[in-house]
Amino acid sequence: MSIEHLLSDGIKATPPSFVRGILKAASDPGVISFAGGLPNPISFPQEELFESMERIVKTYGSNVFQYSVTAGLPELRQYIADRYNRVFGLNLTIDHILITTGSQQALDLIGKVLLDKGDGVIVEKPTYLAAIQAFSMHQPVFYPVELTEEGMDPEQLVDALQNPVKFIYAIPDFQNPTGLTYSARNRERICEILKDRDVVLVEDDPYGELRFDGERLPYIGAGKLPNSILLGTFSKIITPGMRTGFLISENKELLRYISIAKEASDLHTNIFSQYLLWDYLANNDLEAHIAKIKALYQKQAQVMMDAMDRYFPSTVKYTKPHGGMFLWVTLPEGVSAMSLFPKALERKVAFVPGDPFYIGIKNANTMRLNYTNADCETIEEGIRRLGDLLKAL
Amino acid sequence: MSIEHLLSDGIKATPPSFVRGILKAASDPGVISFAGGLPNPISFPQEELFESMERIVKTYGSNVFQYSVTAGLPELRQYIADRYNRVFGLNLTIDHILITTGSQQALDLIGKVLLDKGDGVIVEKPTYLAAIQAFSMHQPVFYPVELTEEGMDPEQLVDALQNPVKFIYAIPDFQNPTGLTYSARNRERICEILKDRDVVLVEDDPYGELRFDGERLPYIGAGKLPNSILLGTFSKIITPGMRTGFLISENKELLRYISIAKEASDLHTNIFSQYLLWDYLANNDLEAHIAKIKALYQKQAQVMMDAMDRYFPSTVKYTKPHGGMFLWVTLPEGVSAMSLFPKALERKVAFVPGDPFYIGIKNANTMRLNYTNADCETIEEGIRRLGDLLKAL
Predict the structure, then answer these.
(1) What is the ipTM of this complex?
(2) Cβ separation of A267 and B102 shorter than 8 Å?
(3) What DSSP character marks residue B211?
(4) Which of A20, A112, A200 sits opposite B137 (nearest CB)?
(5) Which H or E run includes B282?
(6) Mutate to test the interface with A, among B5, B9, B11, B258 (most CBs of A within 10 A)
(7) Which one of B44, B263, B274, B293 would you mutate to disrupt binding with A, by most A Cβ within 10 Å of its Cβ?
(8) Which of A179, B83, B240, B365 could form a disulfide with A327 if both were Cys (CB 3.0 to 4.6 A apart)?
(9) What pLDDT digit, counting tens, does each position of B325-375 carry?
């Protein structure tokens, strides 16, 4: 007998991840996959991490294996506070920081703490598919706001705020899926719009450290809007497999509720990994490590763009990222990237069609391409295969 | 301005954990704490784990640091299937197993997949406080069923099943908080009661491997009830700090929904830790390791019981555990363990009062004592202090 009738409305409203759904197809060694969001293994400092393992087991013994506190390792939280204070002129202490089991958990916790069925959430159009997934569990109403080359459209944002909205979810740097970055002016404008509103701003920044073109820009809300939340992660600069991210908020009341939700979700994040990351950060030159990752990604992004110029029909447009891991391709009007997907797989190349990044849009003429996890020749060859397919349309 | 009005009804219905709330007080080095549920560090095979770290980094390289699949490492899932098949005669394959970020995450996922506001959950009276916490997020109605020396009271269970219940949550071995174990007869009786009912049985078994007295008993539902879920963990036998547990269900439809909830919650569990545990298990004698833990816990439990016989007034009763980490003390009628708690802290000894293990009961005359994380002299001294307090009542 089916268990359908025992299921919650929440899980029935939660779409399975398209990306995770195609992992199997995309992991066929013959397939060139631009579908995932995998960092290049160059970003895992394996030898240094192993040295840190040796050091922490020797130095901290059973502490690295025992249960620990929900907030996270104080030393790691102090490192994060110091870094953000130094780079962005914030005034953070460890009490503003909660270690999370990857940024994905932060999205889960924010949904739990803020959303009842029918509450409003403003998201970018398009937005990160796993954020849609995490929030959908609570059956909110999504209000998508168009993402332009400058960032969220301010007028559409003001309109969307007419609705009973609990929070705004934004990825201002090298956005997933589009690769777009909010301009300084747009950030100020959004901050101005939100200043006296009773709403939480969630800034998700997994890729900010990976800017290979231009200078980092100030956050929209961090240090300015009292109800703002900033998300960060070690996934793109050290290791994603250890699922260690962090949530920053200067609103301690909000953070206290988020901590209760975390307690109930997994007690605390893997403490071995927290010691490991902290020891690695304390004993190595993170900037030099990040510089290597950025140089590689800049080159790979350029190779992908050059190949698209060479192999794609001129009717196909794409965004030019200043950092991060993705770019966004717009096909001619009326062409469904979703319908293209199985044909691409036949030609042994994979991407993520635009649909899962939108709320309620089907057969979008857009697709996300990842350029970080294939070498330059493979990127070139994959784009050539995709170009053949696009030219045959 | 308070953010109270932005909070979800779910988080407002979720109690903070009493145990985590007193962690700070209980971690004062002068305080003898029977409050936590910390395994003894003897259960962390530190040297062997470090050898495994060296081996997996060398053998699997970037795979141990990269993103991975939601279901968990196939090799680890195969180990779990094989072990349960061997010990309990089940017929599990890796497709029946989902790796979770500790058993706490399993509780979170089960709540997400099965509970809408107002749905019924049958729990033991008393039950594990963090399960109450995880389920409360979904605002269910709890139907507590009295826990006797034999297990859940079958008649009360039948009565409770008259309500619109989604699942039953039970801890049949060395229950948390009481230390009680369901008898073989009671298990069969419950299985019989549930056989043709449209309800999920969740058997949480974090302590089953730690039986120091008698033989392991068959599960209530695993292998018998098609809608049953079995939870396990490596926290009590290898390391809790790595937050690695597992959820077993032969109902693949149910497991598929739970996997979607997991995807949305943290993508996947720390893959380094999964490789590490699997390598440790493949290269070491787990039974010999568990035997050491059991011998220690048996001794410590005995020391605590002997000390209670010596120092507690005869009006105070306690359960005699056959394994696990806790025992349960019943004070004379009308004595509130919660009121006793601050007085105990003054005498530098901590326990968990009964209240947070019940639904809506205040000033219960019960308390949970943990005997695994203090040496025998410390246990003796802590019980003496507690005895002085009880005699002064």
Answers:
(1) 0.97
(2) yes
(3) B
(4) A112
(5) helix B271-283
(6) B11
(7) B263
(8) A179
(9) 999 999 999 999 999 999 999 999 999 999 999 999 999 999 999 999 999
